[in-house]
Each structure stands twice: as C-alpha cells, then as structure tokens.
C-alpha cells in the first residue's frame, strides 16, 4: 500500500499543475481570441470577424464534445495506474521479503496483469 499512497500524494501536485495550466494557458488564450476577433472586426470587415468567430466557436465546441466521454475511462485508468504503481513500489521496497519467500513469479504475474489492464484502458482513452 505504500506505493499507492505515494502515487496518490504525487497526484496532488498534478492538481496544482492543472490550476496553473488553466490560469496561465487557457485564460490567456481565450483573451487572445477575443482580442483577435475585435481586431478583425475593426481593421477588416465585420463579416471576416464573424467567420473567424464561428470557426473558433465550432472548434471549441467540437473539442468539448469529443472529450466528454473520456473522464469515466480516464478515472478507471487512473485507478488502475495507482494499483500498478503500488505493486511496483511495494515489490521494490520489499525486495528481500519477496526474494526470501520465492514470490518473484507471483509478483511478476500480478504486475503483468495490472499492466495489461492499464494498457487496455489506455487504448480506450487514446
């Protein structure tokens, strides 16, 4: 369970990364799009600004719609990743115990099964 705990704690830093991504990438990009649309309307024809606006809205809508189905599968994949990394970390931390009780084959099989399940979910996400 140590490996699972370490991986969950590591995921906390990922949440901070998402906040930074939204604050320093997404919001500025939306502001840039608005500024460009205003410039197109002012400097060029309003029709050109409308076309660019429709294309940008369509792109954003398509991106949102295409990624809506991913969270459920992504959550399952994250749970499987926690288990997989937990097995790996526990085996490495308890190497002598595994070796003493001749559990190498069992642990290798358990890890291979966990990786196989993770890869199956990963294919569905991609």
Q: Would you mind describing this structure in some detail?
A:
The protein is mainly α and 126 residues long. The chain is built from five helices and no strands. The model has no long low-confidence stretch (mean pLDDT 85).
Short description:
By secondary structure, the chain is mostly helical. Helices cover 92% and strands 0% of the residues.
Q: Please state the structural category.
A: mainly alpha
Mean pLDDT: 85
Shape: elongated
* Number of helical regions: 5
What portion of the residues fall into strands of 2 or more residues? under 5%
Helix fraction, binned, reads over 70%
For the biggest sheet, the summary is: none
Instruction: Spell the H/E element sequence.
Output: HHHHH
Report the strand count. 0
Radius of gyration: 23 Å
Could you tell me how far the N terminus lies from the C terminus, measured between alpha carbons in angstroms? 29 Å
Unreliable runs: none
Keywords:
126 residues; mainly alpha; 5 helices; 92% helix; elongated
What topology emerges from the helices and strands here?
Blueprint lengths: L1 H42 L2 H22 L2 H24 L1 H6 L3 H22 L1
Helix pairs in contact: 1-2, 1-3, 3-5
């Amino acid at each position: 369970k140590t490996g699972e705990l370490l991986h969950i704690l590591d995921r906390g830093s990922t949440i901070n990364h998402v906040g930074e991504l939204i604050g320093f990438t997404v919001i500025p990009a939306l502001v840039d799009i608005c500024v460009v649309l205003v410039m197109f309307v002012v400097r060029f024809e309003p029709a050109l600004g409308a076309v660019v606006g429709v294309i940008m809205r369509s792109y954003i809508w398509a991106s949102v719609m295409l990624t809506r189905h991913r969270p459920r599968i992504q959550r399952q994949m994250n749970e499987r990743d926690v288990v997989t990394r937990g097995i790996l970390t526990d085996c490495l931390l308890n190497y002598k115990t595994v070796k003493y009780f001749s559990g190498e084959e069992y642990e290798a099989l358990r890890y291979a099964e966990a990786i196989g399940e993770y890869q199956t979910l990963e294919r569905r996400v991609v």
